[in-house]
Amino acid sequence: MRFWKPFFHFGVQQALSCFFPVVIFATIALTKLVDIPVLADYDFILIVCLLTQYAMYRFGMETKDELKVICVFHLIGFALEVYKVHKGSWTYPMDGWTKLFDVPLYSGFMYASVASYLCQAWRRLDVHLVRWPKPLWTVPLGAAIYLNFMTHHYIYDMRWVLTALLFVVFFRTRVEYTVLGAVHRMPLVLSYFLIGFFIWIAENIGTFLGAWQYPNQRAAWTVVGWGKLSSWFLLVIVSFIIVAQLKHVKEGTARIKPDLGNDLPG
């Protein structure tokens, strides 16, 4: 019982943190089950995303600063979507009034939902970072990862080089979180992988529901390849770096702690 109570509490907090991503995927599923009158599916999903964001802010589920972060991620994600769609990496096959450059505007919210999860979990689990590297290392690494998603179409794909570098940069970094008053730690790179893995699962659900398609899924749906897991792993790092740096700027060093040398349970 001593194990299950904190485990259950941790699961509940994680589920609450995933509220916005769950709304997005539930809405996508709804469009497959019900014909929405007047509106195209992509337009309906966008309206639900906008209303959900308003409701989360209005009822205190998100702060104004978190909403700003989510807007930044929407723009970053949408820019990447436009680029990748025009490179043929995937498509949005359905029609909609709110498509721009062949990409529905709601797509940016899928990236924003990752930021929403990070911000929510950060607050609900009282996250602190131990031995967070200096911006001199994290910012260029995050920028290089994001740019590699675009430049690999023209030059050598640097993802494995960047993956090796992130192990070097974040080797000593730990994420510290609190569950029912008990403080736990885990290696930050492990948390990157776990978040990326669950996003990969969500991506399989999204493609199964027809929210978007990869070229090998046009004839029939197939499981998204394991190679995409590395992409999400790296994208999570970009997301985490942005959120962590913004938290650092907003709150000073309150959540960036030195390592005191005593390992805590967890």
Order of helices and strands: HHHHEEHEHHEEHHE
- The count of DSSP E runs of length 2 or more, i.e. the number of strands, is 6
Q: Distance between termini?
A: 17 Å
User: What is the beta-strand fraction?
Assistant: 5-15%
Q: What portion of residues is helical?
A: 55-70%
Structural class: alpha+beta
Number of helices in the DSSP assignment: 9
Spans of at least 5 consecutive residues with low confidence: 258-266
Q: Kindly state the mean pLDDT as a whole number? A: 81
Described by the principal axes of the CA atoms, the overall outline is globular
The largest pleated sheet is described as: 4 strands, mixed
Tally the structural domains.
1
Using only C-alpha atoms, the radius of gyration works out to 19 Å
- Sheet with most strands: strand arrangement: 5-4-3-6
Give the secondary structure arrangement, pairings included.
Elements: H1 4-17, H2 19-33, H3 41-58, H4 64-86, E1 99-100, E2 103-104, H5 107-124, E3 128-130, H6 135-151, H7 159-169, E4 174-179, E5 182-187, H8 188-208, H9 227-251, E6 256-257
Parallel strand pairs: 3-6
Antiparallel strand pairs: 1-2, 3-4, 4-5
Report on this structure.
With 266 residues, the protein is α+β, with helices and mostly antiparallel strands. The chain has one domain. 61% of the residues lie in helices and 8% in strands. Helix 2 packs antiparallel against helix 3, helix 4 runs antiparallel to helix 5 and helix 6 runs antiparallel to helix 9. The radius of gyration is 19 Å and the shape is globular. The protein starts with a helix and ends in a 9-residue tail after the last strand.
